[in-house]
Write the structure tokens for this entry.
Amino acid sequence: MSSSPVYVLVAKVPRHTHVGKKKEKKEKKEKKEKKEKKEKKEKKEKKEKKEKKEKEKKKKKKKRSRKMAVFSICRIV
């Protein structure tokens, strides 16, 4: 009995490429989320800083106006 050669078709597509793309996509998404989170945090800090500055400004203004009022009352009396 002579055996004839058996031919098998083999796909030459590496399996890891698909997984690599998924991983790449995931990393890109995580990077984007991290960037957005950072920007949001910076924006929040900037807003808080601005509000604090305005509050201090108002506080200083109020103190000044009170002093002026006291001074004017003293002058009248």
